[in-house]
Design brief:
Blueprint: H1 9-26, E1 30-37, E2 40-51, E3 56-57, E4 64-67, H2 70-83, H3 110-115, H4 125-133, H5 146-154, H6 175-189, H7 193-202, E5 211-212, E6 226-229, E7 232-235, H8 244-247, E8 249-251, H9 253-265, H10 273-280, E9 284-288, E10 294-297, E11 302-306, E12 310-318, E13 323-329, E14 334-340, H11 348-359, H12 364-367, H13 369-380, E15 382-386, E16 391-398, E17 401-408, E18 411-419, E19 428-432, E20 438-445, E21 450-454, E22 457-461
Antiparallel strand pairs: 1-2, 1-14, 2-3, 4-8, 5-8, 6-7, 9-10, 10-11, 11-12, 12-13, 13-14, 15-16, 15-22, 16-17, 17-18, 18-19, 19-20, 20-21, 21-22
Helix pairs in contact: 1-11, 2-6, 2-7
Length: 464
């Protein structure tokens, strides 16, 4: 049973029904959910099983790997050193950490690594390590020792593409950059990173169950990791070694609620308000949604417009056997955290914003692009047939759009069409032909169902 009752009864039912449906439809064994409204924890509970075989229930205190949410914690550690005057954001990282970027005439700065604007694309180290530890790959690239890792980075420096600067630089999500920042904290302070994080961030915020670089299965009420395969979740191991500063934090729904309060309101005992604001500021563009909404990245935080123009600030994380999302509405001061013991098709980063929409009385399909696009693709999927059956078409969901396969006695073609908007009621899509032509793919509601208009054809729904 939920530990708090600040949500209205109907809102709580909608939240719980959404989470239950998510677990059921996506074979998620267990999850933890926290909703924070202002200073209050408005909702806190566990769903499903932290261990399926033993049917051990997930609780508010179940430990999950929160993966890349760790980056905002490490960024906080770096900013503490900035506040102390030991590090400057425009320092080249080589001023504090040896062995990584000495081969570059203009090594990345601390700011560059915090914002993923160093110009370094992913070197694949975290993917290779996680796959190796999960038994999912036979890659034998040397990545076992600190020396291996340093050489791996050094030999990848030729891949650099631009980088440096406050705004507008090319964004590459670079896990290794945060690994280096973790080493920077250790080099400047002298403590091992897990001890520093515990002493200077987790303990002051009351995150008593959270820990960096540990195996949840070795802790009481720790998640059992599950790897998702074709037959559903399969019991697995947890990738601990080598993840660390880039994504090695374990936390609980309860502790993440405490972290949300810090993220929304700050805590001068942890980091000054001005530096927290700088961390959450969108320094560089990360991408753009179909509707033109821009996503920007700060120091371990992402930022975008959401729910009527408020800013949604947050971060997601995935480690193959665990996944999580934490985010909040900046003006509304409403936050959510979701963590699971697997990495399902529908990631917690799509669940968290949907729960925020529900609390605000909105329909997730209309407020969250992922759910709107998914609902739209499912609505138009099915079989279609033209006048007298001369042409037929099959429409299937594909990514954020649909794949349309048209067949006639003289042959056929398949086009992948993307939606022209995120509005779930706008059934217009668009493809690009091999010749570079825009090809409208439009669905029109009729009294009998839907009609599909594509190229020369008008086709009628057979089993939409």
């Amino acid at each position: 049973m939920a530990e708090t009752a600040l949500l209205a009864a109907e809102t709580r039912r909608r939240v719980e029904a959404f989470v239950d449906d998510w677990l059921t439809e996506n074979d998620v064994p267990g999850a933890g959910v926290a909703i924070v409204d202002g200073d209050d924890v408005a909702y806190l509970d566990g769903f499903g099983a932290r261990d399926l075989e033993a049917n051990e229930p997930a609780t508010s205190d179940t430990l999950y790997g929160v993966a890349s949410i760790t980056k905002s914690v490490v960024a906080t550690c770096v900013l503490q050193l900035v506040d102390a005057g030991d590090v400057a954001l425009d320092d080249p990282v080589t001023a504090h950490v040896d062995g990584y970027f000495e081969g570059l005439a203009d090594p990345p700065t601390v700011h560059d690594l915090l914002t993923h604007t160093s110009g370094m694309p992913s070197d694949g180290a975290s993917v290779a390590l996680a796959a190796r530890m999960l038994g999912e790959g036979s890659e034998t690239a040397p990545l076992s020792s600190d020396g291996d890792h340093r050489r791996h980075v050094e030999q990848s420096l030729g891949e650099r593409a631009g980088g440096g600067g406050e705004d507008g630089e090319r964004f590459f999500y670079y896990n290794t950059g945060y690994t280096v920042l973790g080493e920077l904290v250790e080099a400047v302070d002298g403590r091992a990173l897990p001890a520093y994080v515990d002493d200077e961030v987790l303990a002051p915020l009351g995150m008593d169950r959270s820990v960096l670089a540990a195996d949840p299965t070795e802790h009481e009420d720790g998640m059992t990791p599950y790897l998702m395969d074709e037959d559903g979740p399969e019991r697995s191991t947890f990738p601990v070694k080598g993840i660390g500063a880039a994504g090695g934090l374990l936390s609980t729904a309860r502790d993440l609620a405490a972290y949300l309060r810090f993220a929304m309101h700050g805590d001068e005992a942890v980091v000054p308000e001005g530096l927290l604001e700088r961390a959450q500021r969108g320094h560089v563009g990360r991408g753009e949604q179909v509707d033109g909404t821009e996503k920007r990245y700060g120091y371990g935080w992402m930022r975008r417009s959401f729910l009527g123009g408020d800013d949604l600030v947050g971060h997601s994380g995935t480690l193959s056997v665990t996944s999580a999302y934490l985010g909040f509405l900046a003006e509304r001061e409403l936050g959510v955290a979701v963590a699971a013991n697997t990495a399902p098709e529908v990631h917690p980063m799509h669940v968290g914003p949907a729960l925020l929409a529900i609390v605000e009385g909105e329909d997730p399909a209309g407020a969250v692009a992922f759910h709107g696009l998914r609902a739209k693709a499912r609505r138009v999927a099915g079989s279609y047939e033209s006048y007298r059956g001369v042409a037929s078409a099959e429409v299937e969901p594909a990514g954020g759009g649909v794949e349309v396969s048209i067949d006639t006695a003289l042959g056929g073609e398949t086009v992948t069409a993307r939606p022209v908007s995120t509005d779930p009621d706008d059934l217009a899509f668009e493809a690009v032909s091999a010749a570079g032509d825009r090809v409208p793919v439009e669905f029109e509601p009729t009294a009998d169902g839907l009609d599909l208009f594509v190229r020369r054809w008008r086709l009628h729904a057979d089993s939409v």
